[in-house]
């Protein structure tokens, strides 16, 4: 027979293995959390005064760059923005402070926001995206669409094409209280992803309850283009964040940055979301949870054409990832073709 004391010690050891969070999981410190809460509160209060200001100027697209390396494709983005008035766009960069990212200058000059350390498969990526949204909300009431992209993203169309696509397709007949047109957010929202239950239970079987029952849990792309009203929903949220910021015990199924935003917005305003993203990602041959990374030899006019194609006749992809730094020069050689649409 087993010694009862030995059995108890063995069970305690097992509980330590399966309950204590992985040391690889980056925790959000209390000072960082309080700092973010103050920022989000300011953005929420500012949103109450922004309606009249929005109607007095042209709507803008806020490009939100989330990076932990240098912005290798900054020269390509420079070409993308060239010749367009800053009255139509803003740029914000959240660069991991531990990565010593070099500001590229040009249109990115002075666009780096106060940032905190991030880590893949942790709620720090959610915090970074919320920080970008809050900063852009505070900075300019004319910011009407918020496009979150990574350092590995490239644009697939000209700025004019993208701007016209976003602002010439409001929801028919829909209006905000300010009489401004109502637009929809381009964010992937899916309830049929493989291993969705494993991702839901990554923090523990019932931990997400009661705020997020499994039948309301959604998956989607980490990168999205959302409206101002949805950006405001994100920075106001406290209820779902309390669940998604909890540490995961199953790190193999922990991707909170791919679930928080589609779950929140589908619960708050399902009709306001298209259900698809504007960022093309190739998951064929993915490695370690990372999508296919394009190399210089793969860059061609045909690749750009293929990346633009969606399974819909109503829209084209506007961004694509993931590209290695050595793709920059081949892409610059194709810039006139890419941005001629």
From TrEMBL:
GO terms for molecular function: glycosyltransferase activity. It is a single-pass type II membrane protein. Residues 1-21 form the signal peptide. Keywords: Glycoprotein, Glycosyltransferase, Membrane, Signal, Transferase. One of its GO terms (cellular component) is membrane. It is found in: Membrane. Its main location: membrane. InterPro entries: BC10-like, Glyco_trans_14. Pfam families: Branch. PANTHER family: CORE-2/I-BRANCHING BETA-1,6-N-ACETYLGLUCOSAMINYLTRANSFERASE FAMILY PROTEIN-RELATED, CORE-2_I-BRANCHING BETA-1,6-N-ACETYLGLUCOSAMINYLTRANSFERASE FAMILY PROTEIN. This is Uncharacterized protein. It comes from Salvia splendens.
